[in-house]
Amino acid sequence: MSARLAVAVRRGLSRWDASPPPPAGAQRRLAAATASGGVAAAAVAPTPPPPSPSRRWYPTTPADLDAVAARTLQAGDDLSSDHPGFADAAYRRRRAAITAAAAAYRWGDPLPVVAYAPSETATWTAVWAQLAALRAAGGGGGEGVLSGDAIPQLGGVDAWLHDRTGWRVRPVGGLLSPRDFLNGLGAKVFHATQYIRHPSVPSYTPEPDVIHELLGHVPLLSIPAFAELNETIGIGSRGASDDAIERLARLYWFTVEFGLLQGDLAGGGSPYRAYGAGLLSSPGELARAVGLPPPFSGEGAGEGEASTSPAAVPEPDRRPLTLEAVAEVVASSYPVTTYQRVYYVAHGLEDAADVVAAYVRQVQAE
Questions:
Q1: Do the strands 174-175 and 74-75 form a parallel or antiparallel pair, or are they unpaired?
Q2: Which of 198, 217, 270, 285 is catalytic?
Q3: In this structure, are residues 103 and 22 in contact, taking their beta carbons and an 8 Å threshold?
Q4: pLDDT digit string (tens) for 320-337?
């Protein structure tokens, strides 16, 4: 599941001045890393200075995000000791190469091209197959740009998405602060990682990876109502107080990452459908959230899924998403490394967008 916003919020890192500068020596390491890691990137450009640590500044154009993307809280190769790939030196070197290419990217450059290895493609294909078995529970889309045979390049995804809703995708080397990430949404830009989860646990990831970004977020960003929901939260983050940023990040978590819609009871399907990207890129949690059997059995699901199997986790609490409920949403805590305990259910994407827009108007009036 995604931990993009959760990790930063739970650490209290929503301030501009909490975001560290780019890692020292990153530019010097780029040439060696990309040469050995199968990543093609543009020539290294000087890192722009970060903007003033004032919440009054915010990016208004995609080019402004060059400074934002350089301020990752946690780089893609900086793994915690409980990460599935922590002890895998080859996996960490691979992520370091992809992260270096993202750090060198500047707006207007060709998007980095990653020559994914057969083992990486196999992980993508395995997750694709599990999610395909749950297609009735949500997801799908991306026809013409996404398939189970190969991991798509960001360049093709970016062009496909821009043709449909005007959104852009740009690479990022790791976790951004909630303020930085939400500000990007306000400029209709989605920051996406390009590295993939560890092959030992294909159906689980403790942080955003290319599966989460491209199978979870991108297809729905091609739908106008969902794209509007994202942009609305992003615009609401512009110049907002630290407290408001934390509340908006929680609203994002319970809607864009783990939101549910009412399903097709009359047609004999699941009573719920997912639109949250954290669900749509996690086969085990997706099945549990909508009340379906998982698309795998036994311990073969991998450590992350097996440890949070339906037998080990109580039935989730599903609550209506209303403006009145948002006060509860934005004050709620949530687990990052296990299945969610609570999901909020909207009638449809348009209804979810309306509720989010109403709350953002309240934030802007503060």
A1: antiparallel
A2: 217
A3: yes
A4: 999 999 999 999 988 877
The pLDDT score that the predictor gives to residue 201 is: 85
Widest CA span of the chain, in angstroms?
60
What's phi and psi for 290, nearest 5 deg? -95, 0
Structure tokens at 46: 């000087």
Closest CA to 304 of 272, 275, 281: 281
Active-site residue flag, 270: no
The DSSP-derived string for 141-209 is --TTT--SSSPPPHHHHHHHHHHHHS-EEEE-SEEPPHHHHHHHHHTTEEEE------TTSTT--SS--
228 classed as catalytic: no
**Is the model's pTM score more than 0.85?**
no
350 catalytic residue (yes or no): no
Query: How far is Cα of residue 352 from the mean position of the Cα atoms in its chain?
Result: 19
CA distance 356 to 44: 39
| Residue that the structure tokens 């306000």 belong to | 186
Active site residue 213: no
- 212: three-class secondary structure by DSSP: helix
119-133 burial, b at 16+ Cβ within 10 Å, e below that, comes to ebeebbbbbbebbee
Bridge partners, residue 342, by sequence: 317
